[in-house]
Amino acid sequence: MTWEISFWVGVAIVFVSYSGYGLWVAALAWARPTRTNADYLSDDRLPRVTCVIAAADEGALIARKLCILGRQDYPQDKIRVIVVSDGSTDGTDELLTESAARDQRLRVLRFPSRRGKPTALNLARPCIDTPIAIFMDVRQDLTVSAIRHLVAHLADPTVGAVSGDLRVAGDSYWTYEGVVRKLESRSGSMVQVTGSLYAIRTADVPVIPPDTILDDVYVPLTIARSGRRIVMAEGAGSLDVVTRSIGHEFMRKVRTLAGLVQICHTVDGCMHPARNPVWGRFVVHKLFRLLCPYGLLLMLGGSFMASGWLYRVAFAGAMALGAMALGGTVGIRSSVTSISRSLLALNLAALSAVPAYYLGWASVTWARIERDRV
């Protein structure tokens, strides 16, 4: 009986994290959808915005990103750009200097050595002189109306932060995660934004602790404490492609999950149900990910040791999924191997995340990850 209990406890943990939560927010979005009163203003009424970009050794991509901003259908005279070069040594600074000389809307700030994204954003903060700040990364492409959609959603006073829609081509697992985030938004509030594209009112831009790993969780959660919602502008696409290496994917996820542990310590009231309006969603959607590998181990051990055909089938299924995940790491490509590989990387990362945080292995500075390009 003990092994059977272990198995079903593990099933419950895994189900809630990967399926149960998604089904719950889907039911909420269907039964009582929370709509955003987005207001698409005419060009002459649109507010000015500042796009803030932290760049570290992005010489190969920064000019492309500035061109992408120049193609936005938002009035170009209402767009300001601040790029903070974080200790770049690859020619990024020279490219930015040349661009700033041609375009007075661009302001360049620099650190001589790497400080990390939070410190870079803090440096830009007092230089933002527009009502709305839009934070973005260098690598991703943007849909042509991305800024217009972000601004329209901020017209709703109940909304505090607006996320772009990160679309990762070639990653089935991220496609599912994107659907869950949309359902969160439609049913009330998300618990984070995508760091590659999000907008807030300039008055709400906080000073971010310099060792913060996940600014895209820290910033919106500090705003959510006021009772305002975190929503997604589904028309504001931030376009990316799948990570080239499983090793890069694993390292990114260790850092991300360690950042969630850090958030529990650094966001005041984060773990207090009365002080964090999205407490339940944060715990189930985010922190349950740290429990999942232990749930899987309970399932695996229970199915191996318990008697009965159901447990034999469950054990065989777990072995098959493991084999497909390993197949994905050696180049066998399909949606099933992609999902299995992502789940394997995520759960191995979850096992490593807590010690990584407490032992100081998760650094606030980041390295640019090479990706396949479409």
Q: What does this protein structure show overall?
A:
With about 375 residues, this protein is of the alpha/beta class. The protein is built from eleven helices and eight strands. It has an eight-stranded mixed beta sheet with strand order 3-2-1-4-7-6-8-5, sandwiched between helices. Strand 2, helix 3 and strand 3 form a beta-alpha-beta unit. Helix 8 (about 245-265) packs across helix 11 (about 335-360) and helix 9 packs across helix 11 (about 335-360). The longest helix has 30 residues, at about 1-30. Mean pLDDT is about 90; it is low at about 370-374.
Offer a quick outline of the entry.
50% of the residues lie in helices and 15% in strands.
Q: What structural keywords apply?
A:
alpha/beta; globular; 11 helices; 374 residues; disordered C terminus; single chain; 15% strand
